[in-house]
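Here is one such tokenized protein:
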Amino acid sequence: MKLHLKVSGLLAFIGLLALNLSPAQAQNTNTCVLAGRVNEAGNWAPQLAGVQLLDAQGKVLRGTPETVLPRLKQIAVSKPLPLSACHASATPLPELKEATASKREKSQHLMASAQPIEVGAVYRPSLRSGGSLIELQVLAPQARIAIR
């Protein structure tokens, strides 16, 4: 049994090396930050403060979600943002307040820094009332994550 665990752990580590991910990056690949909400007309309603959307060269992206999101490669974070599981499924979510509500428990937060964070994916889960959330899957190093 112990040998099986060692072999499976070694295989997992080799898999991470093959993907060029550090173990810290690999454990955070399923974490998202909420970047905003898009209304039924396709406009920001609102884009949340504390998140700057950047292209691959680090330039700030401005405009409608349809023009910004395809070019989005990284974000700059000016205040701590809560990390949550990504809602990539097609199941409509409840209202924004309900979808982002917490029980005031301590949770993981992406900490502010001048160093941009790579965006691995953009998800747009639908809301039952119309529109959608914009969730960004971030590939943050463990040093940028803290419990608050």
